[in-house]
Amino acid sequence: MNNIYNVGLYIRLSREDDDKVLMSESITNQKSLLLQYVKENNLKVYDIYIDDGYSGTNFERPDFNRLLKDIELGKINMVITKDMSRLGRDYIGTGNLIEKYFPEHNVRYIAVTDNIDTFLDNSNNDIAPFKAIMNDMYAKDISKKIKSSLKAKMKEGKWVGGRTPFGYDQDKNNKNHLVINEEQANIVRKIFNMCMNGLSFYKIAQQLTNEKIKTPAEYYNFEWKSHYKLKYGIWHSKTIKDILTNRIYIGDLVQNKRNKVNYKVKKIIKNSTNDYIIVENTHEAIIDKKLFYEVQKRIPKNKGRNEKKETHLLDGLLYCGNCGHRISITSRRKKDNRCYTICNYYRTYMKEHLCTTHSNNYDELEKIIINSITEICLNYINKDKIKNNILSNLDHKINDKKELETLNNYIKQINNNLDDLYIDRLNKKITEEQFQRIKLKLENELSIKQKKQKELRNNVNEELKNKNIDEYIDIFLSMKEPNRELIINLIDKIEIFEDKTININVTFNT
Prior knowledge:
CATH class of the largest domain: Alpha Beta
Oligomer: single chain
Radius of gyration: 33 Å
CATH architecture of the largest domain: Alpha-Beta Complex
Structural class: alpha/beta
Helix content: 40-55%
Shape: flat
Strand content: 5-15%
Number of domains: 3
CATH superfamily of the largest domain: Putative Large Serine Recombinase, Chain B, Domain 2
Number of helices: 19
Number of strands: 16
């Protein structure tokens, strides 16, 4: 047996260990204990390996791997840890190291406080497997407690995510609360307005890229995985979709969307929507709820469009009246400059004859539909109701109006906080000094917001007075200048049948 040992001291501290009240597990104390042990036993230390902030359930640790590499190179033939749990908390991995790996490489392993020494024949070595199981159970228990604690915070409406959502920052005074990042929030508002104007995910992404607007990845300083770097990054359709469908922007927290498989496996799986934890009105909204849910209605109309070809008024609105699938619009033919409609289900399963072509000259179809909508507008529509709707839509185009809505919500929240503060004082939950300090802060903030609110109200009212509403109504009812925004406001979907029958489902009451 080799009596000359080159010792590797291994020290590990995970985040859960770091939260302990006792300091016995700290890096400093582990190191002190191990150095004292080698001194008392006249051992030679080759190197000290430290993994700070790494879980024992995972053996992918930088200095642990460096330790194994030095063992493979024959530089180390003894490993010492404070106890077995520092080596690892996964009983299978830890057992493999002690029972197979170390013996195969002629490495002596010592766990000081557990009195385990693999080169000695003693009863403590016999119970090492049981200690490994106990350490594993401890890790499992800690994992359950952490998950339980996080879920409790989620149900209380506290933000417990890692990276904050685009448009928000972590509150400096409360890490579980989100506050608006105005620079990013303006981009979010722009995206919602573009969707309201009838642009699809791809078109929105394309326009933002062309305007050289910074992407979320750039704000978060993500590393580019490609071989080149761009000054302004590229927006993608998925990013646009994620923003447009995220309830975070109306002040709601939707959490617990994903989970790890278990405490040993890092793989993330998506949870069922039934498992989502949703708490409403937890933070200041960026997008008005009315606007948000209007966008949700429009998203399906902006899907399924070939973005690299010509954009048509009826893109995303055409459906097959026979099979229910979407009808797409072909590219214009060079010989006659015409484009035609075709049932997507037929095109996909042409050989199976599951549907028919539903081919129509698109330009003629568009004229027929526009004429039909015009007739409805002129003869059947409730003009007073349309006037109110147009006024409402015009309001959405006024930037001050959006800011005013945000201010109204913020002022309401401050008043609620003042009410809660008085109740806490009456119930003696806070001292008089705390009450006066917080009250003064809230009242100052309220005064500033109310002053801004008054200015914005004046701006909004003045701008509305200058609008020639009747002119808008004339254009609206006559359909003189139909654009995509107008069309998707009026039409829910258009069903086209094989016999050329057309069924137009409108989104207003005649």
